[in-house]
Amino acid sequence: MNNRIRELRQQKGWSQADLATLLKVSRQTVNALERGRYDPSLPLAFNVARLFDLTIEDVFQPDQE
Amino acid sequence: MNNRIRELRQQKGWSQADLATLLKVSRQTVNALERGRYDPSLPLAFNVARLFDLTIEDVFQPDQE
DNA sequence: GCCATGTGTAAAGCAAACTTTACATATGCG
DNA sequence: CGCATATGTAAAGTTTGCTTTACACATGGC
């Protein structure tokens, strides 16, 4: 699962810590998501999309199978 | 997190076991999702949405906070 | 009544998501 | 140089998602 979190975050001029605060998760979680270490839970994916005013499909792209 | 899985499944005339097979998860997982016992992983949410030819936002509604 | 099918649920176990604490490295600025 | 900020990572622990096995109950058809 790819995502555009880093790109979207940088467009806003936010640090990983800033984004973590806004999402109410740890900075390590933001880092792990950006680096593709794991996928977010569905509720967190919704929070990310809403924060950037996008759909989940806009932010996350499932691997083509 | 609410979802329309049961409704969508019944529209197709599928049993929980049928849907589980199509999604490649266990029947208990389908049952738990329909009954709101937990949320699906993001990849599974994508699979559900694609199976019904809908967006994630069409199928899943986060609790209003 | 018997059997098949569909649904709900429980327990045990594994894997994935997330946390806290901690340390390393890089960059920029006084 | 010394310090602050940003990022990457690791280890250990908790919670959540999902599996397998198993059993209960309801409904409908023979």
Describe the structure.
- The structure is a homodimer of 65-residue chains.
- The first copy, chain A, is mainly alpha-helical.
- Chain A has one domain: lambda repressor-like DNA-binding domains (434 Repressor (Amino-terminal Domain)).
- Chain A is 58% helix and 6% strand.
- Chain A has helices spanning 5-12, 16-23, 27-34, 42-51, 56-59, and strands at 2-3, 60-61.
- A two-stranded antiparallel ribbon of chain A has the order 1-2.
- The longest helix of chain A is centred in the last third of the chain and has 10 residues, at 42-51.
- The termini of chain A are close together.
- The mean pLDDT of chain A is 96.
- The interface between A and B is medium-sized, with 13 and 13 residues.
- Chain A binds a DNA duplex (30 and 30 nucleotides) through α3.
